[in-house]
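User: Here's a protein and a ligand (pyridoxal-5'-phosphate). What would the complex look like?
Assistant: Let me lay out the input and then the predicted complex.
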Amino acid sequence: MKRVYNFSAGPSMLPLPVLEQAAAEMTDVRGSGQSAMEMSHRSGDFKPIIENTEALLRSLMGIPANYRVLFLQGGASLQFSMIPLNLAGTEAGAPKKKASYVETGIWAKKAAEEGAKYVDICVRASSKDRLYTYIPSPPAANPEDAYYHITLNNTIVGTRWTELPQTGPVPLVADISSAILSEPLEVSRFGVLYAGAQKNLGPAGTTVVIIREDLIGKAPSWTPLLLRYDIHAQEASLYNTPPCYGIYIIGLVLEWLKDLGGVPAIAELNRQKAALFYGYLEQSRLFRSPVEPAFRSLMNITFVPRMAESGERANLERRFIQEAAAQGLVNLAGHRLVGGMRASLYNAMPLEGVKALIRFMEDFEKKERGGVRVSHTNHE
Ligand SMILES: Cc1ncc(COP(=O)(O)O)c(C=O)c1O
């Protein structure tokens, strides 16, 4: 069997035991005589699957009883529309409500742009001035806001919030697509949390929304049915056919995480993996992190060559990505909008994978430094 270390930002690696269990159960899930792809979503066979997935998520994240968990489709991007529509949408002709956004990256910007179609949004702070390499200090919420939106982990540049903004009674809404289950999170600090599954949860196609009950049921009458949280909540995510197979795999991933010791245990491992990799970058004379140390992501670690000349840099990046792939270290190219390199170290990336990448980088660096001249600029 060939397995690579896949450093993709998503879809990304799933734990091998999960894939093996899914393979073993492919034709017969728990004595049902069917795969999880073939079951009616309203059958007695699927009911325990979705209920178990929700129960595991509730217990691993410590989700309080007054929050609903919804399994939806449309990716995190659809939440960029559902959040403003459901939390602050207004009837035709009525003045728009207000909401605050903090722009910490390209996804945060997209969320704000989509929100602006339905709501009078205010971008309260932005880190665009330094290419999103830090988290700006956020102003407190405006009491008139219907909600306050942040992106907890910024997948593209590789930053993360370490302190939440003070929003008082204004519901804090967070995109946790690339952060979910990577570290403990106090769910009760938030009104809504949402995440596409394809990083720490399972296959693409399922979106998890965790929403405080009192925020459900505020959508204006013209809201398309499938975009209404109240419809999905009333029907326990079964208003229409949910992404059944994705929900099944998420359940297996959550079982795996529970057996490992849950979020505290994986958070410890994640800190260890990130510390090892950032530690390597700090002493490397060839590569550096472009992100301010206080805001460095544990999940998505970006790095760039230290040399100043852009042609030389692009050349080195290309060689690096190709040679790494040849060694089974794949998907290390940075996001197409920012370039450079990125290693995503989600929950399923084993410590061994990080060590293998560092070993490769050390060898690559030795080889480069033996041949090509490397400048030692540490700024930029
Ligand atoms: C933080 C964040 N938000 C939103 C998205 C968009 O997610 P989707 O493709 O599920 O719509 C991504 C995708 O990588 C992301 O990393």
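Summary: The two ends are 43 Å apart (CA to CA).
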